[in-house]
Amino acid sequence: MNFDIKTNYFVLIFLLLTSGIWAQQKDSLITISFKNVDLHSVLNMIEEQTDYHFYYIDSWLQEYNDLSGDYDNALVTDILEDVFKNTVLNFYVMKEGKIILTQNNIIYNNLPDGFFGKRKDSFKIEVKKVRKTISPVFATNKSAVKSKKIETIRIGKALRGNLRQKFTLSGYVQNIQTKKPLPSAVISVEEYDTKAITDSNGFYEIELNVGLNTIEITSLGMENFKKKVIIYSDGRFDAFINEKIEQLDEVLLEGKINDNVEEVVTKTKIDVEESKNIPLALGERDVLKVATALPGITTAGEGAAGYNVRGGKADQNLILLDDAVVYNPQHFFGIFSALNPFAIGDVNIYKNSIPAEYGGRLSSVFDITTKDASVEKFKGEASIGPVTGNVLLETPVVKNKSGLMVGGRGAYANWILSSLDDESLKNSEASFYDVVAKYNHQITEKSKVEATAYLSRDDFSITSDSLYIYGNRALSLRWDYRFNQKNTGKLALSNSEYKFDIEFDGQSNDDFELGYSIEETELKLQFKYLYSDKLNFDYGVSSKLYTVRPGKISPKGPESIVAPFEVDKERGLESGIFLTSEIDITKKLSLSAGIRYSVFNALGSGTQNIYQEGVPRSEGTVEETLSFDENEIIETYGGPEFRVSGRYLLGEDLSIKASYNKTFQYIHTLSNNTTVSPIDTWKLSDLNIEPQSSQQYALGAYKNFDDNAYELSLEGFYKESKNILDFKTGAEILLNENVETEVLQGNGKAYGVEVLLKKQKGKLYGWLGYTYSRSLIQLDSQFRDERVNNGDFFSSNFDKPHDFSLVANYKLTRRFSLSTNFVYQTGRPITFPIGSFTFNGADFTVFSERNKFRIPDFYRLDIGFNIEGNHKKNKLAHSFWTISIYNVLGRNNPFSVFFVTENGEVKGLKSSIFSIPVPSITYNFKF
User: Which Pfam families is this protein grouped with (predicted)?
Assistant: First the structure.
């Protein structure tokens, strides 16, 4: 028997009152079987076989439609317990075969002890210093009656014998219009001071007192959301909130506007979406190129791969893509990025206060994460430019739980090279591609797994006899788990590889193939513990295994006379344990203190040379050669790395910050070029090459003003380094079994001041950055052959004291905008010939001290015109056009300067990447 909802509980109360004595009648044994039926049908089957009659409100049963069971000679009460275990329904058996169903709560035979007064043996619990006796949960009370406009929901199911007075409510908060999660939404309880905040996925977890609670959810730009919650046990409630609509000419929503002032660990965050408005070479969007327009980050020259951060070498930057290392994140000598901009979600750069969780590099961390694939609908993004094409697709795999993202980019530049008049360039080739895929799955509300795969490849042949091939591979698997509101964990497994190959096919019989590769595999376990609003901890362990194959050469073709040769591989294990604590000492003073203890083991198998003391290293001074078995420890390095940052608020929009970092780096690049090239190799520390180390001090002031329209920062730094690797003049690096005889290790220092002014509001926005810095190196030794510039400090290859950049965008209308990018840099150092002499009939050139002179200063102006499609909501695709001119002034900026001798005369020549204005047009669209 069921009731209309209007009868509500009054009929149930009447049955209880007219039943006489509340007593259980003798239970019945029945045999029953059902499969994929609704709950209403199950109750009808029991009524047909017994004298029982059920009383309930019909709407309570509507959501239970797929029940199966097989019971042989079982008690009716046991069957009901089993059927109702995954519902919010309880039952009560009355006299004369009446069974009353209740939703959420329980009907009691008698009142609990102490209901009419205190008893000595009653169980007590203290909530906010008020002692209460445990009693049943009653849904109706005065506050509930008065708040008729607020909807009441019931969570969970009352269980007999449950003495708990607090239960956990969890779920997700979403924007009802966009279906996207709402991070940083605040969930508060009206009756007492309890709050929770949603994480980046919109998930929350909060403890409520048993019974009636009033919860309110607030989020920037959203309507306030309030519900009466009667909670009986742990349960889940997902909130869908409407956007707040204001009838104004313009509504500007600002979030985290004071982060630059308030955050303790300073990081530079690049807006991936806004990067599309910055004109770059050939119209290709590049978030890493945008980074070089910020103070303290630069490159050795136009078209140079790698980045120099605060006077550091390019190999001193840790570039991560979803926890996996990318060794060369650029295509075609740095002209294009090797990372798909459509797939990137966040870019965070640490250059002064590197968190202790990161290790293995001295200068900076580029932590790049891909965005999650859509779990709701199929969508995509694509672009078509003059030499590149890009597409990214997203599709749900399990609706609202998992999604797959696949993206690919490719270059079709050969048509440009084939149209040139120069025969040597006309036969050249240049192409590249990269592919990225990501799968993300929300297993439960507490557990999430992500898997990312990335692959890139470059092929180029500037001359007709050599083909260069290089590429990256990165794989990562990550599991995030939330233990409770205060504890979260992450387990990440990653694998990375960088390799290059050279295929030489000349006119003679010395054709060959040469290859190199470095691979690393890392396992990282990390936990975060929020002790309180003022104190949190970040701790964990990590370990990575390096495998370096320094090079092998083999003959190409049966007629080649090249003898096959391979340098022994290198292996190393780098491990670390870290702990960071961030604490608000006062409202104004906050401190982040961390320590990382790292250990590096150089592993066998392999051989190591022991050289005579008191003489320079050379093949002729080898005293002994040691052999090591597989996995035998050759040498161990390590030590503590301290990471400390502090922030003091002088006002709501003004702060000063200071930081200190000590870091170790156990891996080095081997290159005797002034700029990074694809055939640079990496070398692990061993018996003869010690790890690099660095200490950096920084002090700065951060200020927002004019209602947060402007952001200003001024920061100075000083960095000391040891065991920086450099090379002897004319060093032979590739396929050298004894590289230590060609290298020098010395001291480095860098210092400077960085100024950044950003405008974040209005039709005109962008930033102006200026850096004055010096990067110096000292190569001193007791041996003259190993001393450079008399052992004094001299400018490094990437020392450029003045670096000025301006990035601006002006919105003409909602659809049209103008953008510009201007860069000025001091020319980098170079060694010049300063004279010549003749000896025994031969001409010799005399060169200056290393890096004593500089190439001409660099400057470049780019402009762009951006056209957005109309803003109609319901359309197949949303488009975006970019028309740009790169190097609009036609400045012939030198990429490198070199010298040749012709007819006994030394001539200086320079090469440039873009010596003329380069126009471009790119079409982007989303669907």
Answer: CarbopepD_reg_2 (PF13715), Plug (PF07715)
